[in-house]
Amino acid sequence: MSNTVVMGAQWGDEGKGKIVDILTEQAQAIVRFQGGNNAGHTLVVEGKKIILHLIPSGILHPGKICCIGNGVVLDPEVFLREVDTLREKGVDASPERLLISKRTHLIMPYHRALDTAREVHKEGAKIGTTGRGIGPCYEDKMARVGIRAADLADEALVREKIAAALVEKNALFRLYGVAEMTVDEVMAWLAPLSARIAPHVQDVPAVIEGCLTSGRNVLFEGAQGTHLDIDHGTYPFVTSSNTVSGNAAAGSGCAPGVLGQVVAVVKAYTTRVGSGPFPTEQMDACGDYLVERGAEFGSTTGRRRRCGWLDAVILRESVRLNGPTGLALTKLDVLTGLPELKICTAYEYKGQTLSYPPQEQDALAGVTPVYETLPGWSEDITAARSMDELPAAARAYIERIEELLGVPASIVSVGPGREQTILR
After folding, report:
1. CATH architecture type of domain 4-102+200-262
2. Is the confidence at residue 127, as pLDDT, over 70?
3. Do the annotations mark residue 301 as ligand-binding?
């Protein structure tokens, strides 16, 4: 294994946490390179479920270095809550192996309040944000007024930045009818958190460089999915960062030339949380079947996920944008029991047949999916550890996905457990 990027190829929730957990064994350092705690990874190890939102999945492997890169926006409360949870479970989450880049921007209470206020104010035009303050924090980053992890060492600088931020934020709070905040209130909230976070704040690019120069592999972990990318996703129903593989270098602090393999994680069907177009969504018994068998409820919000058939058009765009060297096909076992399976192979749109999604805003809401039907299977596949142990129909389904995308499925997940995996 070379340095590897793991990213989602759909609208997030593809099962990246399990794939990162598996690939971590072959890496020395794992770096989360974008997003915030609006993303959640659910892992099942030895029958125990662990949900992480900020800390890389690799933390469960002793001896590995886990880094939160500069492309992430970090909520100090959520980070420390995860640290405490891991320690309670006997996992080493010490500053020696859990690092935060000095350039990582911090989510403040006014970011969360503004995020929620805006979504409430939109009423019928909601984006579906989690209200975690992710977008407003990225806004401050781009406006060059954000608070970075390294700033915590300078109390006067932090106080100055908070005061400047609250001039604008309090004006917006007045507009939205939300209680205003004072500098002292925010500083009082931050002080105890800052003391605990400070030991974790280090030069992450230097750590990555140290691994690379010593010949050790680095695993770059993305959050959300390609079609939630701020530039390439279904705008405006997107997240506030670049989720594509090309951002792994910029969001971690290394040169793009060090990126080797790209593993695109693909759920065997399609899901989406929140608002936005979803051409293959099934709002019927089939959709309910996928929700129930797949336990399709958000690990961050608990919201029921929208479910539908696999969309090869969306995935072709993901292949074009990310250049994957392999696919990690997840939740194949959820399809067991369906008499037939459908794959969307093209869209009909304004009298044309499209192999790639239209790029105009809201155009995806106007497409009609063109389906190809394949036979399903009824056999339990959760004990399969090789392709030969899968039913013929399951193998045919995988092979058709490979043909449509032109990328091999190097990993096939047949259950939530770490061991329920076929490696090819």
Report:
1. 3-Layer(aba) Sandwich (3.40)
2. no
3. yes
